[in-house]
Amino acid sequence: MRLTQYAAGGGCACKVPPGELERVLGTVAPATGEDLLVGVENGDDAAVVRLDGERAVVMTADFFTPVVDSAYDWGRIAAVNALSDVYAMGGEPLVAVNLLAWPRDKVPFELAAEVLRGGADVARLAGCHLAGGHSIDDPEPKYGLAVTGTADPARLLRNDAGRAGVPLTLTKPLGLGVLNNRHKTTGEVFDDAVEVMTTLNGPASRAALDAGAVCATDVTGFGLLGHLYKLVRASGVGAVVDASAVPYLEAARASYDAGYVPGGSRRNLDWVRSHVASSVSEDELVLLADAQTSGGLLVAGEVPGYPVIGELVPAGEAAITVR
User: Fold this and answer.
1) Where residue 26 falls among pLDDT bands split at 50, 70, 90?
2) What percent of the chain clears pLDDT 70, i.e. is strictly above it?
3) 229 or 16, which is more confident?
4) Alpha-carbon span 112 to 315, nearest angstrom
5) Angle subtended at Cα 217 by Cα 268 and Cα 54, rounded to the nearest 5 degrees
6) Which candidate in 12, 14, 128, 215 is catalytic?
7) pLDDT for the residue 99
8) What whole-number distance in Å separates Cα of residue 102 and Cα of residue 192?
9) Which of 29, 32, 34, 43 has a CA between 20 and 30 Å from the CA of residue 195?
């Protein structure tokens, strides 16, 4: 069955637009407390609560509609994406529970077992316990995880800790949004995109910590430009992006030229446009804002083995300069 046909959106491209989300969150009083090290204030990737001087708990939840037609691969992608939030904070996942919504009158419930098997295989690979969860009958299929991890409170990766003069490293190529949109439309399978989306960010996170990084985020539904904007805004700095240094999946540009662009990618660019100074084309900006699913880490710092795509600079008139 083509699971992607049972949902209006797909993957992280179905996230609530960032501008709308921030307006709603702005009406809710944020939680506070001496041991709440990371809350909602800067839109970071997960919440972090200090237990003592050496231990902190990292907590997140992430789920979405099918991004590929394979139930097993969808389960793997959703699980890797959920675990990524813990890695983006410099933590290690400890235990997770399943979050499953299923249209039982449209899609055989037995197929959900393949989704759950994919999630379980990823959790096992990550060394994370997966125990139970919650399921509901829903018009659209959705799957993900609520994850609890651990971290050293003195060695976190936060999105508000960026410093001018530090390079920017991206650990996975872009183009997932346009390729997933093409897959949903045509049924074509892009094995390299599935490979990227099912690659855990754990090794990249540990490499970033070993390199002395203190600032990072993961690149998902708000695109590279959207997540970078949140990072520089929280850190009080600016950024310069070298568009020619940003890696893309092989078929991404051809798919974009053929018109396979998620609506979420254009909404991402609309949100950040007034904060971006650019000497590149509109098409290049849309690709830089492409809504990624289970993307890589964006690290303030040079991480061996991964491409440097720009640098953080002192805050200026534009939050981000693309050249």
Assistant:
1) confident
2) 99
3) 229
4) 48
5) 155
6) 12
7) 98
8) 28
9) 43
Q: Hunting for tokens 């009958």 — which residue is that?
A: 137
CA dist., res. 229 & res. 246, Å (int) = 16
Model confidence at 14, pLDDT cuts 50, 70, 90, reads confident
Residues near 289 by beta carbon (within 8 Å), at least 6 away in sequence: 223, 224, 225, 226, 265, 266, 268, 269, 272
CB atoms within 10 A of CB 49: 17
Which amino acid, 138?
Answer: D
Give the model confidence (pLDDT) of 284-320 as tens digits: 999 999 999 999 999 999 999 999 999 999 999 999 9
DSSP state of 89: T
Three-class SS state of 156: coil
Helix axes 263-272, 223-235, angle to 10 degrees: 30
The verdict on whether 12 is a catalytic residue reads: yes
Distance CA 187, CA 144 (A): 23
Query: Quick check: 194 pLDDT over 80?
Result: yes
Structure tokens at 98: 């399943």
* Tokens 């379980």, located at residue: 120
Q: How far is the C-alpha of 194 from the C-alpha of 189, rounded, in Å?
A: 8
